[in-house]
Amino acid sequence: MKDLSILIVEDEPLYASKMEMQLDMLDLQHLGTVDNSQDALDILKEKTPDLLLMDINIDGDYDGVELAQIIRDQYDIPALFISSLKDDRTFRRAMRVQPIGFLIKPFDELQLKRMLEVYFSQVDHKEAVPTDTDAIQTDDLLIKKDGKLIKIQQEELLYLNADGRYTFIHTRKGRFHIRKPMSNIVEDFPNLTLLQSHRSYVVNTAAITEIDLDEYLVFLGEQSVPLSMRNKDEFLSRWQKL
Questions:
Q1: Rounded to whole angstroms, what are the CA distances from 99 to 37, 51, 52, 78, 94?
Q2: Domain end: 127, 154, 175, which one?
Q3: Handedness of CA 165, 170, 173, 175 (dihedral sign)
Q4: Which of 107, 200, 207, 233 could form a disulfide with 162 if both were Cys (CB 3.0 to 4.6 A apart)?
């Protein structure tokens, strides 16, 4: 995990110090510690962490949840929330940002350690996904995988998910990954109306079954994808005109 980096946004010096020590023990890069939203945004103009350790009650124009949403939308960086607040409303607000977790103060250092280890082990696994798939453009999309061609008809697409160097294609047949920008894959589905619900998600509008405006989620049958505050108005406007 030594190549992975974290930015701490915490206004209580005691907790900030504990987190800094934990990062050092886990051999993670510590990009800095700030106690307000503006300093966090300033750091991100020059550095890009892999994860935020985000207190919810911080100084500045935005609280931790609002700041995490802005950073998720603009930089696609996830957050681990840390808070002394235990009420359901705060928890529901935080969950809309799709954090990797939520720790309640006072938390055990082992809890933080285990949560970071689990998250970064998942990141390592994603980076290890073999790049043995490719896409061939026809009227439908042909996925070349393990020496086989899998045909994906246009209407079978549910959504696309950009994840690092890969794009995951979620279909009614299952999930496939391609080492190709999501914007390029959108062009492979010319017969569909695709809308961007989030920086990392593009949805087939024909597959939408429900939109939850309280939880900021777009449902495609049993599956769901996030709807970011940044994309919400345009997404809803264009979807309602279809």
A1: 17, 10, 9, 6, 7
A2: 127
A3: positive
A4: 200
Residue 109, SS3 per DSSP: helix
* 3-state SS class at 226: strand
Token look-up 């190709």 returns 180
Q: Which among 66, 101, 127 is the end of a domain?
A: 127
- Whether residue 146 contacts residue 53, with contact meaning beta carbons closer than 8 Å, is answered with no
| Helices 229-240, 64-75: inter-axial angle, 10-degree rounding | 70
Residues in the chain: 242
Question: pLDDT tens-digit profile of 37-89?
Answer: 999 999 988 888 889 999 999 999 999 999 998 898 777 788 999 988 888 88
Tokens representing residue 82 in the block: 């840390």
Pairing status of strand 51-55 against strand 79-83: parallel
At 206-234, the pLDDT tens digits run 999 999 998 889 999 988 999 998 899 99
Q: Where are the alpha helices (DSSP H) in the chain?
A: 13-25, 37-44, 64-75, 88-95, 109-127, 182-186, 229-240
Instruction: Name residues whose C-beta falls within 8 Å of residue 135's C-beta, 6 or more positions apart in sequence.
Output: 141, 142, 143, 144, 178, 180, 185, 188
